[in-house]
Specification:
Blueprint (H helix, E strand, L loop, with lengths): L13 H26 L1 H26 L9 H24 L2
Length: 101
């Protein structure tokens, strides 16, 4: 077994042996915790969702800052781009609706 703590020498004192046992228990506890975390799919999904939420909030804040002029008004280019996206989505929705009939 590989360990980051060396085993006590032959003829070590009881205190050294007990300290080694305690370190081994702590290492084992950390290993069990890590394995439990890896097997907990629900917790992993929640963590990933929180990371995605934080990333989206950061992106939204950056986009908000990038979409305004120096005086705080919306940038006309950004508004035009957003309008184009809305029109494109509407056209795709209409075409998909006609196709499903």
């Amino acid at each position: 077994m590989t360990s980051e703590h060396p085993e006590p020498e032959q003829g070590a004192s009881m205190d050294d042996i007990e300290a080694d046992i305690e370190r081994t228990r702590e290492d084992l506890g950390e290993t069990v915790d890590a394995l439990t975390d890896r097997l907990n799919v629900k917790a992993q999904a929640k963590r990933k969702a929180e990371e995605a939420k934080a990333k989206a909030a950061s992106f939204a804040e950056h986009a908000k800052d990038a979409g305004t002029t120096a005086d705080g008004r919306p940038d006309p280019k950004v508004l035009a781009g957003a309008g184009a996206v809305v029109v494109l989505v509407a056209v795709v929705a209409v075409l998909m609706g006609r196709r499903s009939r």
